[in-house]
Amino acid sequence: MAFTIEMLYSLVILLFCSLGNSLSSNYYGKTCPEVESIVAKVVKDATSKDKTVPAALLRMHFHDCFIRGCDGSVLLESKGGNKAEKDGPPNLSLHAFYVIQNAKKTVEAVCPGVVSCADILAFAARDSVVLSGGPTWYVPKGRKDGRTSKASETTQLPAPTFNISQLQKSFSLRGLSMEDLVALSGGHTVGFSH
Ligand code: HEM
Ligand SMILES: *[C@@H]1O[C@H](CO)[C@@H](O)[C@H](O)[C@H]1NC(C)=O
Ligand SMILES: *[C@@H]1O[C@H](CO)[C@@H](O)[C@H](O)[C@H]1NC(C)=O
User: Fold this and answer.
1) Is 34 a member of any domain?
2) Where on this chain does substrate bind (predicted)?
3) Measured between alpha carbons, how far is 33 from 171 in angstroms, rounded to an integer?
4) DSSP string for the chain
5) Which end of the chain, N or C, is less surrounded by CB atoms within 10 Å?
6) What's the pTM value of the predicted model, to 2 decimals?
7) Per-residue pLDDT tens for 144-183?
């Protein structure tokens, strides 16, 4: 389970770059100062009961961010005629959604209507890496939750059959370099794969 520290630091830098300037460090400073410690505790408790939780949350964050940006759209349920991202083909092994739901519920009890699910998922992914023995990083805050989630758009995720040029293209469409691709692939240090 040894993370390559350099890889994960690159991940931090890339998250800063790809998220732009609209996020801030003190976004919840007045409205929900405890949010990060609340989420960290929920993730820690869930992990103590199920060791597969951290890998699930890290991958969930990646799937969220690659489709429509980090907007929580991976968390939405299918409704009516609309099939949501989580019901798209690559979702089949996404799991531990209940951990984000618990975190959101716990946060809502302390600061109702303030913190986005997208931010909670971003915190939880970071906490997951820390719990797995990796480094920590600073998560800028203020993501807004999207209301659109389409299973059909999950074809925009890189497929396991992709060769290197296809992977590079998929990442560059999101402003991510070859270096980012290599660093982020370090995420597979944890978890399972068929
Ligand atoms: C480079 C393109 C990527 C491809 C093609 C890819 C593909 C996959 C595949 C096929 C699996 C196994 C799913 C299964 O067997 O059901 C997997 C698992 C996983 N991926 Fe990726 N992935 C990519 C990038 C990433 C990134 C950027 C991250 C996060 C930094 C990530 C984190 C994970 C994790 C943590 C798992 C294990 C999930 C678990 O155990 O629940 N992947 N990935
Ligand atoms: C993923 O999608 C499949 C097929 O659309 C669905 O049956 C399944 O419940 C979904 N899994 C999760 C974890 O949402
Ligand atoms: C990768 O696959 C694409 C599409 O099948 C193909 O056009 C390209 O030449 C391949 N690149 C490499 C490096 O194999």
Assistant:
1) yes
2) 158
3) 34
4) ----HHHHHHHHHHHHHHH-SS-BTTTTTTT-TTHHHHHHHHHHHHHHH-TTHHHHHHHHHHHHHHTTSSSSGGGPPPBTTBPPGGGSGGGGG---HHHHHHHHHHHHHHSTTTS-HHHHHHHHHHHHHHHTT-------B-PPPPS---GGGGGGSPPTT--HHHHHHHHHTTT--HHHHHHHHGGGGSS---
5) C
6) 0.88
7) 999 999 999 999 999 999 999 999 999 999 999 999 999 9
Residue 152 has phi, psi (to 5 degrees) of -60, -25
CB-ligand 2 contact for 63 (6 Å cutoff): no
Query: Could you give the number of structural domains in the chain?
Result: 1
* Interval 21-54: pLDDT, tens: 589 999 999 999 999 999 999 999 999 999 999 9
- Residues annotated within the binding site are 64, 69, 71, 73, 85, 158, 188-189
Domain range holding 69?
A: 5-189
Cβ neighbours of 7 (radius 10 Å)? 18
Give the distance (Å) from ligand 2 centre to CA of residue 92.
5
Annotated catalytic residue 95? no
C-beta of residue 126 within 8 angstroms of C-beta of residue 136: yes
C-alpha 123/C-alpha 131 separation (Å) is 12
CATH no. for residue 24?
1.10.520.10
